Please model this.
Amino acid sequence: MTRLILTFDDSAAGALLDLADCVIPVGRRFTSGKLPSPGELDLLLSRRSARGEGAPECWVDHLPARLEDVKRDGPALAEFCERFEAIELWVDAAPNAQLQLIWLLDHIRHHAKVASRLSLIQTDTAIGDILPNELTDWRQRAVPVGNGHFKIASAAWAAWQSATPQAWFGLLTNDTSALPGLHAAVVSLLEELPALRTGLGVTALRLLELISAGHVHPWDLFPGHEKPNTRRVLGYWEIGELLDGLTHGPAPAVTGLDERPFDPAMHHDSKRHQRYARSTLALTDLGKAILAGTDDFSRHNPVHRWWGGTELSNDRLWRWDAQNRALIASS
Model:
């Protein structure tokens, strides 16, 4: 039986290579920034030859070199999946992985041949960190994907794309147990909304906490192996952009960052990259007040960012009340 594994990052794909005839990492970031439109997402998963000039990237464009033949052929994802007799979807509990899961299930439900061959393995730890001998144990927990999985995924994906956080918040009272990592992801992403008292999400507040505790160099703040920031909701580029936002504006919460913006150009310039690494960070008086819960970042600085399909701004600042697990509409 020919077997395909779909997973959501290169680390997971590397760990799973010996378990299937082909392992495909379908990696997208959905935890920050403006979401692609439904049409753009459909194009992303379509056959390359069916796309017009100037169309956005194709799903095969960022596949690893070992899959060069797939990149050259450029099939639609569903078309490629149909080449295999069994398809396993491996997903861990990371919020972005859960978002990719509901997006992909929502897409696959419209392709009956693929949907009928699909099974789901959901781990409670990062797949790339699982020992090879333990992966077989996880595989034994695979479940066939059925209508219940597709129904939950489609509802959740529609909620994440919504123009307000209300439908996503509503998932907390829905039965999402068929996708056991989804409930925790819903909470983690609600926590990234501006907090009721501080105007910052939990990840931003964690950066302030780390600086206050003496982790004063930028790389100290990024998640990683045996590093103090264990929150993994946002990715590498998103953390860098978040730190940029805290250090630059009418009233910064952090001072001392010597280089910005945090973008590929800075990474490709060794001198700028070194200046960034040598920066010594400190909280401003506003940063200290925010950390103490006595001031609000949004009262002093412009806010404009995307949370799923919701555009957040100073006059449209949906907030999360963690203490009461309540969503507060903008006033």
